[in-house]
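Progress against Task 2.4 (sequence-to-structure conversion) is shown through the following example record, which the project officer requested during the mid-term review.
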Amino acid sequence: MLDEIARFNQECWEALAQAGVEYSCPFLDLNVETARVKVDPEGMLGSLSGCNVLCLAAGGGQQSAAFALLGADVTVLDLTETQLQRDRDAAEHYGTSVTTVQGDMRDLSRFEGDSFDIVWQAHSLNFVPEAQEVFAQVSSVLRPGGLYRLSCTNPFIHGTWEDTWDGNGYPLSRQYADGELLGEDPHWEFSDPTGVRQRVRGPREFRHTLSTLINGLIGAGFAISGFWEEANGDIGAKPGSWAHFTAVAAPWITFWCRMGAA
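Structure tokens generated for the chain above:
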């Protein structure tokens, strides 16, 4: 049973997916080499042949396609039917298979314990208010020694984007605390695959501070194996552009974690 936040975000993501937001566009030009880069840019994974992988709140036909090409048995859980259809479309394109499940990342009770070798979570944790709920669910379905890759918004800059350029920098003005981001235009503006600009209501978002993330992972039984900041912009780009902003501030962070022994 979805709660009010999940129902609201489900509707928003359905609209975003149907409007062609980039996260809903399947990766249809992968080979084994590029697939590996998509799901393991940090080089943390070995052979994936026969591994049971859960792409958590990661519909859209992107990571699922890459893992399947690398020989994994892939399950995708996502709130949104259109996102899951993209995964099925990608699997059909490559002649691979994928299991799609519609549901909330905070409830993995449909899966048996120790079901997965890897849980791969894209930038979705910030759409739920309590990170610890997700970590507890992930720990319940990962096998001992299994890997959890978590990417999320950098909490230090969450709510500060390229349009906040003031001539000198990108000022921080929000309180640094866990909680919902309020007081800004909730719409996402983007170009669809045909280049047409779209403006769609975005989902509710929540900041999780770095201490909440680290302590929550440790408390759920994970050992943090690596941490990365994704700052891959161009410092020479025009100030106020996404390329310049992402050179000055890392918008995303990534954890690789290993589940402790039972």
